[in-house]
Design goal:
heterodimer; A: 538 residues; alpha+beta; seven-stranded antiparallel beta sheet; 22 strands; B: 201 residues; PH-domain like; four-stranded antiparallel beta sheet
Amino acid sequence: MAMNPHDPEDWQRSSPFAIVFFVGSAFKVFRQILIQGGLPVAALVIAFWDNLGRMDVLLLLAAAAILMVLAGAIIQWACFRFRIGEDRLLIRKGFVKKTRVDLPYERTLGVNVQRSLVDRIIGLVTVTLDTSGSTQAEGRLPSIRTEVANRLRARVAAALPTDAGADAARDASDAADGRLAAPSRRGRVLIKLGPADMVRIGLGSRNFLFVAATIGILADLLQPGNLADPIREAVVAGAGRATSAVFGLGALARAALATMAILAVLTTALILTVTAAFLRHHAFALWHDGSTFRSRSGLFTQREVVVETPKIQQLSVSQDIVMRWFKRFRLCALPAAANAAQGGGSPGNLDTAGALDIPLLSDRAVEDLHARVFGEEAQNIVALPHSTAFKRVSPYYIRTLTLRIWFIAGLCLGLVSLALLPSGGFPNTGILIGWIASLPIAAGVAWQVWRRRGYARDEDGVATRSGFLGSKTNAFLMRKAQSAILKQSPFQRRKGLATLQVQLACGSVTVPYIDEGAARRLRDYILYKVETSQRRWH
Amino acid sequence: MAESTPVDAGIPDRFVNPEVPPDSLPDPETLDWTPLHPRFARRSQVGALIPALVVGAVVGTCQFLFFAGGSFMAQRAGWLPALGWMIVGALLFRSLVWPLVATPRRGYVAREKDLLYKSGVFWRSVQAFPFNRIQHTMIDSAPLDRRFGLANLSVFPAGANAGHKIRGLGEETAERLRAYISERIKNEAATEPAEYGHEPA
């Protein structure tokens, strides 16, 4: 598969299976173009919609687009070369716009490995290198042989200051054996998830309600007079007698049947989300070794994420209602995010560095990870959402949020009212009354959001809490801040309040409606920590 | 004030973590803010006037074409041109008055360690950009800016894809500020530790 497998220092090419990866990339670019030029495409579709005689033209255009994507992918694969040097990885890619990437190993802060089912069968892996300078995973080698990947990992490990010698020796040994380096031999296992945890993850998934709603809509489409009439007829044909029997039942029996239908939808949604959890997080394990966190998971496509501790900018811990019932949390360690302007290239050509996502862990594990990431810094910063150390923001926040929610509700209802203009006239009295009646609901929602809002700080770090039904905390070290913004609305100025927004390399964290003096002091202290810190922020 | 703390194993010797009394911290709100270039208000007026005039031309053309005499549109929605002209009037008023109000409330301060920028009339904000977090800077100027001898300076901390733009600087001021920030970035980079070893996040 390599151009010259006998000389590892020579320029190499990915396996032809990498064309699938390039098809994905080309499709993304094509999709971007389609979105940008969406209007003419939509016009084209509308023009041909009612003229089935000319639909063949549209199909031809679609076929041409698919062929273009495929041809683009093959050309990209043919132009993609890489060379694993002693101290750097060199990548040459591009046909029209030729790009040459030079990645010194010492700049690498993470080596992520991903193996799809096909990759695993034929012994290939996709390796992604995260770098500190550009905060992006610039180096992605799709579908390369396992021994090449191991050699690359060994070279990178040798260039890093942490346990370089031992890791390099182990990876070199693996490379010789032709197996993917086993992380279980590197560092201590912190977390392992089993089948019961997969069920918990599936139950706690945010997609659960979405999947349930989708099933509900699909079920609704099977009702008479809808788009899926042919399917409905096929399904109903075999159950004609059962249907007539149902309508022959009493009200109680019908209610029981409706409940059973709802339960069936929820069960199907549960099965789907649990299956998704198995696919994504099967055999999840997290290792920690020195300054490196490494996670591996996946049933068919196996993902390995490696993040160096210094690159982590923020720790997010979340807990929704289901997770609260299980007394479990979800933790996400966010490294520096992509910055398109920095590289000067198109964001579509670059891959964002991956976050370390731990889908299920106990409160003790959260605190343990918190201590491992922040070390001796920010020891008094709370990580768990239910901690009492969080200070609440000003109650005036409720008023502002209530008005904001009420305004949005009014806007939505106004649009509905406009839609009903021909029949109901304007303004529709019912909608107006509904909008006024929604004020207490808006206030209730705002009060609940305010209850969750809070912040805590110590000498080194800041933590914020937010949420509605669930809770989420964001913790970061002050010295990692990129910029700080102090904002005040006219209302806040009258009440002596301010909102502090701290920009990090992975996003921003906001502390709304706190005392103006406290906000200024916190902002100034963050600036002081940033400007006097002698440690690297990434 | 600064005193080196004892270092544990794994922490570089040069690391210091001095305590600082919160009361001794400088207050950016009492700083001597540098206003934007005096011509920026006029440039903003012209910049806002162009779209207002375009909208006015569109409204006038539509009125001439569709609302003339007893046309169908004039009978069904005769109030539409009036609404259009009200919007044009509001845009014209905004383009002429708003820059005179907003420009004096903008300003910047370049300090030894950071750059501050304030803006906003009703919703006010003060942004602070430490030099040791700025990745690079950029100066740009549209034809209208160049006509008024102005330029815009953008600073790019990590994670801010679009950067933060300080508009309405004199061309020479923008260049001097850019050179100063670049110099500060270089100095900060020179003092940054090269290795981090086992240090925590």
